[in-house]
Specification:
heterodimer; A: alpha+beta; 4 helices; 25% strand; globular; B: alpha+beta; 3 domains; five-stranded antiparallel sheet; 14 helices
Chain lengths: 128, 371
Amino acid sequence: MTDVERKKALQTDEDQKLLPLVLEIMPGHAAEGLIDIYEPGSYEGKSLRKLCDRTLSKKKWSIEEQLIVEDVIRQREGGRLLCRGQEIDGTALEYAEAEQTEAGEKYLYVPIRAIKPQEGGIGLIIFD
Amino acid sequence: MKQLLDSDLELVVESGFIHVPLLLDPAIDRELQTPLRTETVPERSGSRKSTAVIEVQGRHFIRTLSVQSLVTNFEKVSANSYQQLKNDCLREYFLTPELDSLSVDGKLRTILFQVMTYFIKKNRGLHRRRWSEEEMLDFIGEKINIPAEYYERAQTFLDTEPLRTTLSDLGKKEPTFESLHNGLISAQELRAWLRKTVFTKIVQCKRKSLRNALHVREQFKNTKKKHLAILLYIADKGSLEIDGFGFSRINSSDEYLVYKRTGEYILKDYHARSYLFPDCRVAVPTFGTLRPIVMETYKHPFLLGHEAGQEICLRQFTPPNKFTAGNIIGGVEKGINALIYGYDSRRRNGIHGLDRKLLHVKSIEFDDYRI
């Protein structure tokens, strides 16, 4: 689905009905992460950061998912939460893109990445 | 050594050392005629008499090489002769050198099934779960074209019977070591003995490698032919790249550079001007200290120069030495994070600044990246 198609789908569906929001939080540069689904009515108007916190503090995760939660928390300490390369600052809907499952069910998708920046250089003094 | 073995000299083997005839030099002869001095002076290591010079049948011989050392290091000191012996051995026992080079085990498996699974998006839709090795190989099979010959090779690989037969035959006619007796021996006899001993050693090594090969093959006996063909293809090629993640074998060893592409990214300078950096591969080697490097000819505030294979300068990072999937993933991520997220435009924390030049060090310019 191209960006234009995604936007179009989003606008149409927003006008017609509310969609569930799928949040995926990935540790570092992992290709896949933790999937959490927010039903319509539970995420509107809420900041994306708060939704991430809520997802990470849930107790329902399996052992495998709990390992991902720990990895995300580890990377987030002193790090950042990014969505499509930008630091998150706003509501979930601002970052959401409409997608659909193979069965044709539509949903809003927000991929979040927890990145711990690694400082580089050798500390040389730079002069003007 | 070659000259010694090719000579007509008569040698002496004593206490595991080869002794060669002492030159008939008047000065040495005089020294040897003064037994009081040579016999009473103890060796540094103990109180034994020196055995460097021995007398056999009225002739003097001086200690040179250790027999054991000669056998052990024959491959290094006489590479051509060793290769000739190895070829003779392969011919005599109908062995193929390719059996040794099959490496579908070891580090490659860790990279494929533990590192690659982390960086590659495998699942469609919203379902997330860990994939089995078979599912991962199916996924790779969909992404790359495996030539038909690898399916044939997989069939041969899975049939362990010929290998068992070879091993059994080898066991039946395996030569045995013969020890070298003390006393006088001609250089020709020594050469023949050395040749036979090294040959026996090669056969034993070959048998060991065949046993290992059989062990590896037995581990794959339940693997589908299709999956084995994929593994053999990757092991043969030594490199693979899928969706920006890849690895590349270093020379012909079982060592690799495991990398992930950064894609294009933008850094900002002190004045908030943007610089577009091209895609590059951040790699970590599977041996030595696992430091991230940039494979391409590349420039960045955290790289010293503008060339290929530079280490990324990282602060507060002690690279691990042990090859594990976690250490490889960590190294690659740290390298990428440093390049994309580590530069602080206010502090200009790199070796080079995007918009400032160093006074005493030749600095790298980034003006051509400005957008």
